[in-house]
Every structure is written in C-alpha cells, then in structure tokens.
TrEMBL record:
Pfam families: AA_permease_2
Membrane topology according to the record: Multi-pass membrane protein
Name of the protein this chain belongs to: Amino acid transporter
InterPro entries cross-referenced by the UniProt entry: AA/rel_permease1 (IPR002293)
Subcellular location per the Swiss-Prot or TrEMBL entry: Membrane
GO CC annotations, alphabetized: membrane
Organism listed in the record: Physocladia obscura
Transmembrane segments: 26-46, 58-75, 121-142, 188-207, 267-286, 318-348, 369-388, 394-416, 437-458, 470-490
Length: 514
C-alpha cells in the first residue's frame, strides 16, 4: 500500500490525476518489457538479415556490441540524473513516457513542437510495431503449415492477411480486458521465454546431424548482399540485433498502472535488456553451431526463413515444436505493442497533443483500460494488413518505418538532455541516477540510435531494383511530413505542453494518504 501511495503522490507532483488501477508489481513490470522486446521472436523473425549480411560473425559479435549500446539507451530511460531512459523514467513515472520526458527536457518555447513530434512519432511507431508483430504471428502459422506438409501447402497473401486480422482482434480483446490480463501474460512469458530458450537450445544441439566448429560459429563472415564493402555489410547485420532489442521502455508506458513506478519502472527497463542479452546469447550460440546450410535458408520457400534452419537441423516433428515455441513468444510480444500505443494515445489526448480526447481517454468500467486507443490500433493494423495483399513491398516499407520511428523517439530525449543539460534540477530527480556518467551514456546512446536510423533506410541488397529497394525512407518521411503538417494546422493551436488534471496538490495528497 505504501508503494502505491508514493507513486500516486509522485504522479500528482507531475500534475496528473490517478485514473488507473495500480495492479502491476515488479515481476509483471519486468515481464512486460521482456515480452515487448521478445528476444526469441525478434532474433528469429529478422535472423536472415544478419545471416546474409555478415553471417555467424555478425550474428554473434553484433549481438554483443548492439546490446551494450541498447543498454546505454535503457539506462538513459531509467536514471534520475536524466541522462537516459531508466534515469528519466525514475524522475517522471507517467504513461506519457518518451513524449512526457521530451516535454520536460527542453526549453518551454520548444515544448509544443518537440513534444508533439516525439509523442506522435512514438505512438505511430508502436501501432506499426504491433501490426508487424501480428502479421509475423500469421507468418509463423503459415510456416507451421508449410513445415507440417513438407512444403507442399502454401498460404496466399490473402489468407495470411486475414489470419493477421484475427490476431489483431484477439490482441484488441485482451488489451481491453485490461492490465491484469496483460500482466498475467507478461509474468507467464518470463518463464516461458526461459523454458523456451532451453527447449530450442537442447533440441538443436541434441538433434542436428552436423555441428559447426567454433571458428565457423564465432568468426565465419558471409555476404549475400551484393555489396562489396565489408564494413557496410557488417553494419547492415546490426539491424537484426537492434530490431530484436527494441521495447525495453514499454514498462514506462504503464507507469500509472504500476506499483512503486518510480523504482520498478527503471528496474524493468534496464534489467530487461540484460536478461534479453543473456537469453539471446544462448540462442545465437545454438543457431550458429547447428545451422546446416546458409544457402538452404537463403533459398527457402517457407514464410519465415528461420523455419528452414530448424527443418534442416532437427527434422519436421521437432521443427514444428521449435517454431511453435517462437510463435507463442511472437504473439505475446506483439500484444504489448498495442498496450503501449493505447496508453500513449491516452497520454497525448489528455494533453491535447492528439485529437479525440473523449474517445482516447475513455476507460472500461472494471479494468480501467483505454479501449479507444486499443481499437484504434486494431483498425489501423487491419488496414495495413490489407496493403500486404496488394503489395508486400509497400507493406514492408510501412512497417520498416516503425523501427526508425522508435529509434528516433529514443534519441530525441537523450539529445535534448545533451543540448540543454541545465533544464532539470535536483528537485526533479528520482531514486535512480547515473551521476557523472550521465552525459557519456546519453551521448553514445543517442549517437548509436541516429546511426542505426541511417542504416535502417539503406538498401540491403545490390544491385538495387524496384523489388528489393528499401522504401522505408519514403514511409518514415511520409509519417514525419504528416505529423509536422498536423502540428502546423492543428497541433500548435491545441497543444502547449502537459496539462494539469489533478485537483489536489501533492502535499494535500500526502496528508490524505496518512
């Protein structure tokens, strides 16, 4: 009870009324971030990216290098000195997350524009992330059918898209049930991820007919891209690890539903990166030592290329088991993206940074879930899945922009902290601090995020054709243009920074709690 009281008082100090049930404890918080990262799913779904751009060398060493920089980003989001995510989350435990942090880290004259852009960019990034994840669930189902039939049964794009629709609706229902359901799934997923990793690790080593040597598993360099610059190829291989490790900040989006949010939120952010790094390391070792043929994976007809690796390594029956493990993890990870987006739409509309305040601030009676944002995400997801029917290239461009939007949203608060280091003072700080290391952590975290944004828009194959061109730059450019345009014609007249909604002071609330 004391933990809830402290969080309520902190929220009142930030100017917001407590409107949600605080039902999430520390394990559920950590589980939410771990589930959102979805290390088994991200590494599996994007496995071919690094396999063809650097091979086992980039898969293994790229994972470790990227984990360090993503840990810097996570620390930035958690720390009390406001150098990073854990630091900032500790000081501002509100579901606005990256959006609210940006508002508090810039001079007042820039709050309207930078807060608006960051919040909307991240919200749409989460909608697109959930959309991509739910279609990946459909693709895993398609792969299970293909593997089960030895490649004889293939689903059409129409069938895959409509399976995606079904997954979207299930995600909407569960998110409407509320945080208790999401929290239970997140807690379960912590143990499922650990057990699932053991299953995958043991199955690959026990059943694969041939084992690769350490030289191959840790140092073999492959280049299927057509680019002749090995440095470029090496960096392109990083994208798999970056994609796999996004999502640690999700626990910050439910700060107003978490107990002891100013402490548990930061712990969830940085511990989820550490846990994901370790699980991912074990998983990569198993994959690198047991892949039977890179050429076979490159030429696969399976909907998810890594299904071919399992099919070659452990046979049909065990491959079905392994793919089913990843499928369940993918479903849980996708579920949390719209948990985040719905909370972001609530926070943005609460401050008039997004239209439809009555719709997006509406809560279900019992569970206190912001159902407007949930079903708005479902509708957008279903519309985007229709583009997959018409053009997989166009769909992939839209979805690729999600990773770029999320990375830009990570970078903005850190850049603001570097440019305006004196905006905040000691009175604003939370219980988690990086102290004198804050500037360095912010600098390296922001620099890495911006560099990765550049590589996310580069073509991954050469020669570049209409079919293999990376159209993510077009998609993310269109999203940014729409956000800036909406700010010019609507946002600047309505949004001027966070709006105070609490009708009682923090000091009065302290007395009331006593």
């Amino acid at each position: 009870a004391d933990e809830v009281q402290v969080s309520d008082i902190k929220l009142a100090e930030l100017g917001y009324k407590q409107e949600f049930k605080r039902e999430m404890g520390l394990l559920a918080n950590i589980g939410l971030s771990l589930t959102a990262i979805g290390v088994l799913t991200g590494m599996s779904s994007a496995f071919q990216t690094a396999l063809f751009s650097g091979g086992p060398l980039v898969l293994f060493w790229g994972w470790n290098i990227v984990s360090i920089f993503m840990f810097f980003t996570a620390l930035s989001q958690a720390n009390r000195g406001y150098s990073n995510a854990a630091e900032i989350c500790s000081a501002f435990p509100t579901m606005g997350g990256l959006y609210f942090w940006t508002c508090k880290l810039v001079p007042e004259k820039y709050v309207s524009f930078l807060g608006y852009v960051t919040g909307n960019l991240y919200a749409w990034g989460m909608v697109f992330t959930g959309t991509a994840g739910n279609l990946s669930v459909a693709l895993y189902i398609a792969s299970l059918i293909q593997v089960g039939s030895d490649g004889q049964t293939n689903l059409t794009n129409v069938q895959i898209a409509f399976i995606g629709w079904a997954v979207n609706i299930v995600s909407g229902i569960l998110n409407t049930i509320g945080m208790r359901a999401i929290g239970n799934i997140s807690r379960f997923n912590v143990w499922f991820t650990l057990i699932g990793t053991v299953i995958l690790f043991v199955t690959l080593f026990a059943a694969s007919p041939a084992k690769n040597n350490a030289q191959f598993a840790f140092f073999d360099f492959e280049n299927f891209t057509g680019w002749h610059n090995n440095g470029l190829v090496f960096m392109l291989g990083f994208l798999q690890a970056v994609y796999s490790l996004q999502g640690s900040e999700t626990s910050a989006q439910v700060s107003e539903e978490a107990q002891n949010a100013e402490v548990n939120g930061p712990i969830a952010i940085y511990s989820s990166i550490i846990g994901s790094w370790f699980v991912g390391l074990l998983y990569l070792i198993a994959l690198n030592f047991n892949i039977q043929s890179i050429e076979s994976v490159a030429g696969t007809s399976f909907a998810i290329p890594i299904a071919q690796l399992y099919y070659d390594a452990v046979g049909k029956k065990l491959a079905l088991l392994c793919i089913f493990v990843i499928f369940l993890a993918q479903w849980a990870a996708s579920l949390t993206a719209w948990t985040a987006s719905s909370r972001l739409f609530f926070a943005l509309s609460r401050d008039s940074a997004f239209p439809g305040r009555k719709i997006f601030m509406a809560l279900t009676k019992e569970s206190k879930a912001p159902y407007g944002g949930v079903w708005f995400s479902v509708i957008i997801g279903c519309i985007l899945h229709l583009t997959y029917i018409g053009s997989a290239v166009a769909y992939n461009a839209i979805i690729s922009s999600a990773a770029i939007g999320v990375q830009l949203s990570y970078a903005l608060p850190m850049i603001c902290r570097i440019i305006w280091p004196d905006i905040l003072n000691d009175t604003n700080k939370g219980p988690f601090s990086l102290g004198k290391y804050g500037f360095a952590v912010n600098f390296f975290g922001a620099a890495f995020a911006l560099v990765m944004c550049v590589f996310f828009i580069l073509p991954t194959a050469n020669p570049v054709t209409v079919l293999n061109m990376n159209y993510a730059i077009v998609a993310v450019g269109a999203v940014l243009v729409l956000i800036v345009t909406s700010f010019i014609f609507w946002g600047r007249f309505h949004f001027h920074g966070p709006i105070r909604t609490v009708d009682i002071s923090a000091d009065d609330l302290k007395h009331e709690k006593r």
